[in-house]
Amino acid sequence: MGNDGGGQSEIEQRVATTQLLGNLFDPPRPNNALIARVAHDLSQYHNMVVMHPPDPIVKPRVRLFSQWAPAPQWGPWYVRAPGQRNSFNEQADKTAGDNPVVPQTALNGNDNWKDNGCFPTCVAMIVRWWAEDNPETKGKLKFPFPGRKNELDPVEMCRRLFGKPYAPCVQIQVAAEDQDKRKASGFNDPTHEWVMNQDAILRGFRSIVRPDFFVGFVPPAPENQTTPPQTYYMQHERLSTSLSFPGTLFPVPMTLEQRRTMLKWALQFGPAVVALQYPGHFVVVDGHRGHEISICDPGNIMVNPGDWATAPTKRQGDLPPGENPSGGYVQVDDQVNFKTANGKFDNPWLMQITSIDRFYHSKFDDHPEWSNLQETH
Fold first, then answer.
1. Where are any strands of DSSP class E within the chain?
2. Which of 8, 48, 179, 346 might form a disulfide with 190, Cβ 3.0–4.6 angstroms?
3. What does the pLDDT average to over 38-64?
């Protein structure tokens, strides 16, 4: 993809929209409760997605982090910790320690930020927005680990959330039919692959937005409690648009109109991370007016004409002060047909979405400004 980022492996793309459970930097322990949890969540949102929320525009707008060259310098660095790499130089891996700036080889594109760091890069945009840009929470969040520099980029975010400059990953079994291809491609272990542990990354975000991590937070005394403690912190929810489980009240996949409503609902009080089924990529969305969606694309994937029937246009307005519109700021008509996994241009952009990570301040979740709500048909 030239100087674009986001070149995930086929295995990583298959699990790109799945919350993977496990410890931050340790081998995972299987948890079958995930299916039941997601099924419950789908049922919970049955009544929510039949309403038309107002067109949301996140203010202030989200600042972009780019995985691709020429900046930032962390693009070619390791995104995975030592011992969690799929194609590495053994000697370099041994001497890396907690320094991600080590010699890169032709084989480890699967393990660097530029080619495989779209999800943690998107989360870093969200973390920076809540920690530095949003007036409600600017300067009020604490991190569990001290940083090494003042500027919050994805590598620095990982240091502050996890104590290491790497994104948490988890190892999965590779299907037998894929193992020969992986061996020929130079992967160190053709039977297993390390992929992003999205659930661990999101737990890192939740760790800094709970009440006791707000600077100056003082919970009200029980006898004088007039405001619930939950009004002091933010929340995160993953909304799924493509999973189907027996017994759920709401049929999936959702229609285009239902997906439009869900995305607008998710953006009411903050930016969202959106997972695209093809090409297995994550972007940040910070506005949805009518049919027009405003996107921060960390990998600059969406402007690639080889992937889309009609490439999204670059955003010229609504950018944060001082930002360069020639980067990954794009806008797209949610009804335009784009390329699907079978190579055909027959799927509207909204139908590419498989999950939406919604972040919001809990005290604002009553939607008092919603009026004249209409049911979808």
1. 169-173, 192-196, 234-240, 272-276, 281-289, 292-296, 313-314, 329-333, 337-339, 345-348, 353-361
2. 179
3. 64
